[in-house]
Amino acid sequence: MTMIFGIPIQAFLGQLLVGLINGSFYAMLSLGLAIIFGLLRVINFAHGAQYMLGAFVGYLLLAHLGIGYWPALIIAPLIVGIIGIVIERLALARLYDIDPLYGLLFTFGLALVIEGIFRYYFGVSGNPYTVPPLLAGGTNLGFMFLPVYRGFVVVASLIVCLGTWLAIEKTRLGSYLRAATENPRLVQAFGVNVPLLLTLTYGLGSALAGLAGILAAPVYQVSPLMGSNLIIVVFAVVVVGGMGSILGAIVTGYMLGLAEGLTKVFYPEASNIVIFVIMAIVLLVRPAGLFGKDA
User: Fold this and answer.
1) How far is the C-alpha of 28 from the C-alpha of 3, rounded, in Å?
2) pTM beyond 0.85, yes or no
């Protein structure tokens, strides 16, 4: 049997795959957080609840309307994005000109309300969501067995993350978004509807969380607690990458997911804290994060 560092290669690569899958969700969620913070200066603590909403929308569409995975992959992010737009227009837009702490407190309270509603109606036990038949089963790579759906999650996450980064960094709309955060009055003087841009930005960040949720539904149990269990880790990822850094959110999401997977191989007891240990070390060496800009 082939060994790596005294560990069977199947076990080593299997944990790498688990780390890559977790990293895919970390990257997508931290990307949405980075977009909202970088462009709106709002620390969106409701992001985990929006991730949970995406999973539940897919589950409810299947259970009550018979709408399968592929339509739900489009419908769930749209619904969560629209909910995000409503939240931004009705509440967050009123908090932009005051201390950012109020935005954090509002989104934290909103997350508790959303989670509480779903816990009341669905309990805390998880609900299964079946893998779509097209992506069922797995592929034997010789050195390991790769579940097709998990491979699809990794590829889909990469495409979404890179596509979003390119849209924000390399397009005219993205330049308008970045400029609107730096000098909204000047941008508005050129005829750009800045409030609409900010609303769509929050909607985009929320939709990314919803997309991550529907992608996660067949991998994990659909539960009201799935967002709160993940959001603290995702915030750590954002801090390591640099608050507001979109590229940093993507890279560190995958990187820390792999680090977590490798820790489960060599020192399983530390796998739950390794991301926070890395965060502490990075903040000591570089307080702005790996990709953040120093003040």
Assistant:
1) 33
2) yes
Cβ of 82: how many Cβ atoms within 10 Å?
14
Q: How many CB atoms lie within 10 A of CB 185?
A: 8
CA atoms within 13 A on the CB side of 274: 18
285: left (phi over 0), alpha (psi -120 to 50) or beta: alpha
Hey, what are 187's tokens? 């941008």
DSSP helix, strand, coil percent of the chain (3-state; round to 5): 75, 5, 25
Task: Give the domains, in start order, of the chain with CATH numbers.
Answer: 14-285 (1.10.3470)
The three-class DSSP label of residue 176 is: helix
Q: Report the alpha-carbon distance of residue 177 to residue 244 in Å, rounded.
A: 13
72-102 tens-digit pLDDT: 999 999 999 999 999 999 999 888 878 888 9
Is the pLDDT at 295 greater than 60? The verdict is no
The type of residue at 110 is: L
With cut-offs at 50, 70 and 90, classify the pLDDT of residue 125: confident
